[in-house]
Design a protein that fits this description.
Layout (H helix, E strand, L loop, with lengths): L33 H7 L23 H24 L8 H13 L4 H16 L10 H9 L1 H4 L2 H8 L3 H13 L2 H24 L4 H13 L1 H6 L5 H19 L4 H18 L1 H17 L7 H25 L4 H9 L11 H23 L2 H16 L2 H20 L6 H4 L5 H9 L17 H6 L8
Helix pairs in contact: 2-9, 2-10, 3-4, 3-8, 4-5, 8-9, 9-10, 9-12, 10-21, 12-13, 12-19, 13-14, 13-15, 14-15, 14-19, 16-17, 18-21, 19-21
Length: 466
């Protein structure tokens, strides 16, 4: 075989692959041009233009923090849209109580008393003038009347609002930056924060992220969302309620005992500053419920922790109220039965309360339930969702919070104020109905440990996956 070489001195050199002996008949393997190989054949090593992470790059949502950020972003967008939906419409965005909250907010922000009174009157009248049920007269007449109220209203009535500075204090940063518009902006921020708290509580009781967003949507679509969008203390009140429930559930499920206890204590304390009646009733309900269920569940330390924190907040609230001579339940009853202290005090407010509460339930609430069967149906379906789809140690605090709405309405037997005072009763409805949206319940980390075996046998068919 004739070979051609580029140099004469290599004429007798054996070429590898050209046969066993020089001069053989074996042909060397054909080689592709260098330029064609680069274009057609894959490279053994990736070039500098291809990053190694592209070969098996994980999805961005595979990271827990990325999923958490996405869930928070979706919850904020959903809550903002639904809050604006509830804010819009023809319903008034304020009540007469708005004036006292706004007045304190502007005064805490450093405004003079005349300027604070007039700004609060302007905000209140602007909200009252919306819708068909507007007050008589023009808006300037309304502003003049409201601005003069601090000089003519009884001091005992004004102390009821000054003893609950939580809502005005939360709006102070917004008022200092945005002026009069800051009061409405702060209420909007608190309303959207309620949606985030609803998602957090839903995840704490064991719902999936999609169900948590459903719970947030139901929160805004139910009466809770309507009253959370008004210029009242209901938005921060419900925010504190759901944060307190989240802390209690974390302690009961033994996931984050220290952080849950701190969240429970802080939320209950803030709730007592925002609306003392709701704070006292919720703390009492959690303490009593934890003590009554103590023999049932095996995690006695967790139940004792919840009861201890609730009792500690109750004791602190009573001590501060007694030391500062703040208005209590007795003063609130006198305000109810004397028409805001326009008449002399009644000698037996508790006896009148029992009679008025009985009349409220038998003459107003029961007929309303019969006329609109969707209301009791919603509560029944929500109860079924909490019982069948949520762990019992996480479901009972949410149900107890709903019962506080009935207690608050009974302590203030006013028919006109009933929808607002009982708004917290719809919180467990949102979570119970959201739990029913799943095809199957999420299996908890471990079965709820209980002491009596008879209870385990009776509830075996209600346990998810059992």
């Amino acid at each position: 075989m004739t070979q051609s070489y580029s140099r004469p001195e290599d004429a007798g050199r054996r070429i590898p692959g050209d046969g066993p002996e020089p001069g053989g008949t074996h042909r060397p393997p054909s080689r592709l041009p260098r330029t064609w190989r680069r274009r057609r054949l894959p490279a053994v090593w990736p070039s500098w233009r291809v990053r190694f992470a592209d070969v098996a790059a994980p999805h961005p949502l595979d990271r827990p923090w990325a999923r958490a950020v996405l869930l928070v972003a979706v919850a904020v967008l959903l809550g903002s849209g639904l809050w604006l939906l509830r804010w819009s419409g023809t319903a008034p965005t304020a009540t007469p109580d708005t004036f006292w909250y706004a007045r304190d907010a502007f005064r805490y922000a450093g405004w003079s008393e005349p300027a604070a009174d007039r700004a609060a009157a302007d905000i209140t009248c602007g909200g009252l003038m919306r819708g068909p049920s507007r007050p008589p007269g023009t808006r300037p007449d309304c502003v003049r009347y409201r601005a003069a109220l601090p000089g003519v209203a009884p001091e005992r009535f004004q102390r009821i609002f000054t003893s609950r500075p939580g809502y005005p204090l939360l709006t102070v940063p917004f008022v200092r930056v945005m002026g009069t518009a800051g009061f409405s902006a702060a209420t909007a921020a608190l309303g959207v924060a309620c949606g985030l708290a609803a998602v957090l509580l839903a995840l704490a009781i064991g719902l999936r992220p999609l169900q948590a967003l459903v719970a947030e949507a139901l929160f805004f679509l139910l009466p809770t969302g309507f009253w959370g969008s008004r210029l009242l203390a209901e938005a921060p009140m419900m925010l504190c309620v759901m944060l307190a429930l989240t802390g209690a559930v974390l302690v009961l499920r033994e996931r984050a005992a220290i952080a849950g206890s701190a969240l429970l204590a802080g939320a209950l304390a803030l709730l007592c500053v925002v609306k003392p009646a709701n704070g006292v009733v919720l703390a009492t309900a959690l303490a009593v419920g934890a003590v009554l269920l103590l023999p049932v569940f095996a995690s006695r330390r967790a139940f004792l922790a919840v009861a201890g924190v609730a009792v500690l907040v109750l004791a602190g609230n009573l001590w501060i109220g007694s030391a500062l001579h703040l208005p209590g339940v007795h003063e609130t009853l006198q305000d109810t039965f004397t028409r805001h202290f326009r008449h002399p005090d009644v000698p037996d407010p508790w006896h009148r309360l029992s009679a008025a509460a009985g009349k409220l339930w038998s003459g107003d609430i029961a007929p309303a339930m019969l006329e609109n069967p969707l209301i009791p149906a919603a509560f029944l379906f929500a109860a079924a969702g909490l019982v069948s789809r949520v762990r019992w140690d996480a479901a009972w605090p949410v149900a107890a919070a709903g019962l506080t709405g009935a207690a608050i309405a009974s302590l203030h037997p006013l028919v006109d104020e009933l929808p607002r005072l009982s708004a917290v009763a719809w919180i467990p409805v949102a979570f119970g109905l959201a739990a029913l949206t799943a095809r199957t319940a999420e299996r908890p980390d471990e079965d709820v440990p209980s002491r009596p075996k008879r209870l385990e046998a009776e509830t075996a068919d209600l346990t998810p996956g059992g």
